[in-house]
């Protein structure tokens, strides 16, 4: 069995039996991208690794449970992440770096700016995916700036390299977009990219919904990473709610009503009325009856009498 492939997919949390089965079907020299595609097609999902896993391998720990070996975590996950109220962040490193480099240079500083923005907001699970060949010395046709940043982010367990190799002098690159979408989907997180991943949307209907609902686009304005305040459009959630597992109530509920006590909208008023203790239940008519101590049923009978001919 190809041990490097086995180790790589074990790190992603796949079952050894499933990996062996796929490698037997596709052959030991199959590309990592094809192996991943076949694992998805089989319906295999990452799970906890076997207890006899090697120390270099990472273990998927169930939420809320205590791991017997706290050093082994899925893709270097922080312990605090399980109780975190913010969504995991998965960054398309190539997209962000090329965007910051004005589509001409692979600017690693752009990746750092994006990571820092999410860190400052309090996100503990941040992963950046970049193809492995970006480790190589830059060439004229693929310039790269601030390459040392990639090394620093890798040491912090934030940056993950997607596999690539050379066959007869030609570079064979795995499809990093599939890793980005798959990890974000399984972590129920947010994808940071200006790519729409249309081919992956067509490949998997569940991914289609996920990409539509969880894609966070962005801009760089004078070296400032800036996502939109309304990621899903004017009628969608705010940026804070989009990045949170538990959205907070809309702020307008707590804005005082401009009409104050003169408001005639009753329980249909969208603004806050400090003078109404039971705003959601009582209409203006019911409030007036309550003030004059007229029973609710009697008030309704009176209304019927007045309405009848």
Residues in helices, as a percent range: 25-40%
- Look up the CATH topology of the largest domain: Rossmann fold
- The assigned CATH architecture of the largest domain is 3-Layer(aba) Sandwich
Radius of gyration: 27 Å
Q: What's the average pLDDT? A: 75
Form type: elongated
H/E order of the elements?
A: HHHEHEHEEHEEEHEHHEEEHHH
- Walk across the major sheet and give the strand order: 5-3-1-8-9
How much of the residues is beta strand, in percent?
5-15%
Largest sheet, if any?
5 strands, parallel
User: How many domains, in number, for the residues?
Assistant: 3
InterPro entries: Rege-1_UBA-like, RNase_Zc3h12_NYN, ZC3H12/N4BP1_RNase_Reg, Znf_CCCH
GO molecular function, one term: mRNA binding
Family: Belongs to the ZC3H12 family.
Keywords: Endonuclease, Hydrolase, Magnesium, Metal-binding, Nuclease, Zinc, Zinc-finger
Task: Describe the protein's topology.
Blueprint: H1 3-11, H2 16-26, H3 32-42, E1 89-92, H4 93-100, E2 106-107, H5 108-121, E3 126-131, E4 144-145, H6 148-155, E5 159-162, E6 164-167, E7 170-173, H7 176-187, E8 190-192, H8 198-203, H9 205-214, E9 215-216, E10 219-220, E11 225-226, H10 239-242, H11 284-291, H12 296-307
Parallel strand pairs: 1-3, 1-8, 2-4, 3-5, 8-9
Antiparallel strand pairs: 6-7, 10-11
Helix pairs in contact: 2-3, 4-5, 5-6
